[in-house]
Amino acid sequence: MMDTIFALATGEGKSGLAVVRISGTSAWSAVTALGVDLPAPRKTALRKILDSEGGVLDEALVLLFEDGKSFTGERVAELHLHGSIAIVRAVLAELGKLPELRLAEPGEFTRRALENGRLDLVQVEALSDLIESETEGQRRQALRVFEGAFGEKVGQWRVNLIRAASLLEAVIDFADEEVPEDVSDEVSDLIGRVSKEIGEELEKSGAAERLRLGFDVAIIGAPNVGKSTLLNALAGRDAAITSHIAGTTRDVIEVRMDLGGLPVTLIDTAGVRETEDEVEALGVARALERGDRADLRIFLSDTGTFPDVPRRDSDLVFATKGDLSKDPTAISALNGHGVDRVVTAIQDRLKERSTDGGLVTRERHRMALERATVLLENSARFLNIGTDQYDLAAEELRSAIRELEILIGQVDVEAVLDEVFANFCLGK
Ligand SMILES: Nc1nc2c(c(=O)[nH]1)N(C=O)[C@@H](CNc1ccc(C(=O)N[C@@H](CCC(=O)O)C(=O)O)cc1)CN2
Ligand SMILES: Nc1nc2c(ncn2[C@@H]2O[C@H](COP(=O)(O)OP(=O)(O)OP(=O)(O)O)[C@@H](O)[C@H]2O)c(=O)[nH]1
Ligand SMILES: [Mg+2]
Question: What are the binding positions for Mg(2+) in this chain (predicted)?
Answer without folding.
Answer: 228, 249
